[in-house]
Design brief:
This protein has helices at about 5-25, 75-85, 95-100, 120, 165-170, 170-185, and strands at about 30-40, 45-50, 105-115, 130-140, 145-150, 155-160. By secondary structure, it is α+β, with helices and mostly antiparallel strands. Helix 2 (about 75-85) packs parallel to helix 6.
């Protein structure tokens, strides 16, 4: 998929995934998705998202903590990422899209819930805000972020075609980029 088609298809799929999460409600387990392009003879471009099978105990690490402190979900993502980049993709990628003709692995996405504490920078007495964040990276180096504040009717969608070094250094983004580098191979139509 050329970058222009990839951005449009990825944004549409990620927005749909976040919408599904919103319908399902809050207090959900994080999910890591493998993202596949689906193009038939280069004519029609869509993206399919498939959950990467991860034992739920990885995400429960968040509940094993000191009173008042919890380990963030990205700690579990780092452990999962370390394991997945050390294994060949066929051992853990979902079978159905991997064996479909015209399906190519083009990225990864991670959805998690947490607290946005940036308000505390200006006011130490402020309450953290509950948010759901869906972050994704594709094989063209584009970073996607969809963030919904708890109770908001619509999420904020950000597409960074040229992410800054600070954005690339964020733990979730860095993990997803490692997975992309290890397992996504450009196809003939992956670049303009």
């Amino acid at each position: 998929m050329a970058p222009t088609f990839t951005i449009a298809a990825m944004t549409a799929k990620l927005s749909a995934l976040e919408h599904q999460e919103n319908i399902a409600g809050w207090d959900r387990t994080p999910v890591l998705y493998a993202l596949f392009s689906e193009s038939l003879l280069g004519i029609h471009h869509t993206v399919e998202a498939v959950d990467v099978p991860i034992d739920e105990s990885v995400w429960r690490m968040r509940h094993h903590s000191v009173t008042g402190m919890r380990l963030p979900h990205w700690v579990g993502l780092q452990a999962v990422c370390d394991l997945l980049v050390s294994r060949p993709a066929p051992q853990w990628l979902p079978d159905r899209p991997r064996h479909q003709p015209y399906h190519h692995l083009i990225g990864f996405a991670f959805v998690q819930e947490g607290l946005d504490t940036t308000a505390l920078d200006d006011n130490p007495n402020a309450e953290p805000t509950r948010v759901r964040a869906l972050t994704s990276c594709d094989l063209n180096g584009v970073v996607y972020e969809i963030v919904r504040v708890h109770g908001a009717s619509e999420p904020t969608v950000t597409v960074l075609t040229d992410p800054s070094p600070q954005q690339r250094a964020k733990v979730v983004t860095a993990c997803l980029q490692r997975l992309v580098s290890a397992h996504c191979r450009p196809t003939d139509d992956a670049r303009d």
